[in-house]
Design goal:
This protein is mainly alpha-helical and 266 residues long. It has a single domain, classed as Helix Hairpins, CATH 1.10.287.1490. 79% of the residues lie in helices and 4% in strands. It has 5 helices and 3 strands, in the order αααββαβα. Strands 2-1-3 form a 3-stranded mixed sheet. A hairpin with a 2-residue loop joins β1 and β2. The longest helix is centred in the middle third of the chain and has 83 residues. 16% of the residues are buried.
């Protein structure tokens, strides 16, 4: 089995470590994006499902109100028929008592008609109100459905693209690890796993390690800039590189990743 070729000088080791950090950080960011996008689509899908369910319920309620109104109208027709029959019977009565009895039935049916007409007006007002709400929900549902379809297409495209980039970066990360001494790689992994943001190698910014406000002594900063040894910040526990060094490596890695992506797309 061939022995892996590792970086020999301190500067070579630092470059390998920081390049690995840049690659791993890009992978971390892609995974965050991949984790958030499906949640956005899921939220939209839940909203569309909720609106669809609400729309169905509103339509059922509107149909019930309309049926109630139709039943009232049928009741009015029946009452009118009964009134006509009672009036015809009044012409054939033999005494006032029968006439008064029929008259009371007619009055009762008239009251039923008045009550039914009132209920119909109330039902129609309720139906109109629900129709207005239904219209609003339908418009909102239509808009959200379009948003969902658009977001799903965006998600499919972005996930496909990020997965392609993630595959390239993972291979670069694996290749980069082959050039790093096992003990140094173990230290990098330990520091990275212990950091909330996964940063094990960081540049000095504003006289402090990136993300920290505790200043690094001037002599220590000079030692980092000299790149003659691997220096760990005593406060954050991270491996330090100078800003110029970090910028150089960032440009190099960004350019390399872009080339590999373009090659894959070609």
């Amino acid at each position: 089995m061939a022995k892996k070729k590792t970086a020999s000088t301190a500067e070579e080791k630092l470059r390998a470590l920081y390049d690995l950090q840049l690659i791993d950080t890009r992978v971390d960011r892609l995974r965050v994006v991949q984790g958030e996008l499906p949640l956005e689509v899921e939220d939209l899908a839940d909203e569309v499902a909720g609106l669809t369910s609400r729309l169905e319920k509103l339509k059922d309620e509107a149909a019930t109100v309309a049926q109630r109104s139709a039943d009232r109208k049928s009741g009015i027709v029946e009452s009118q028929a009964m009134i006509k029959r009672f009036e015809e019977q009044q012409n054939e009565v033999r005494n006032n008592r029968e006439f008064d009895s029929l008259n009371k039935e007619i009055e009762y049916q008239n009251l039923e008609i008045q009550l039914a007409e009132k209920r119909i007006r109330e039902a129609e007002a309720e139906f109109d109100g629900k129709a207005e709400i239904i219209k609003g929900v339908e418009e909102k549902l239509e808009g959200r459905a379009v948003d969902l379809e658009t977001k799903r297409k965006e998600l499919d495209e972005i996930v496909a693209e990020t997965r392609a980039e993630e595959g390239i970066l993972e291979k670069m990360s694996a290749d980069m690890k082959k050039s790093i001494d096992d003990r140094l790689l173990l230290a990098y992994s330990r520091i990275r796993n212990g950091a909330k943001n996964g940063m094990a190698v960081v540049p000095i910014e504003r006289e402090a390690s990136a993300g920290s406000f505790i200043k690094i002594p001037p002599q220590r900063q000079l030692d980092v800039s000299a790149r003659k040894q691997i220096i760990i910040d005593e406060h954050s526990g991270r491996i330090l590189v100078d800003k110029e060094f970090a910028e150089e490596e960032a440009v190099k890695v960004t350019t390399l990743v872009a080339k590999k992506l373009n090659k894959k797309k070609a």
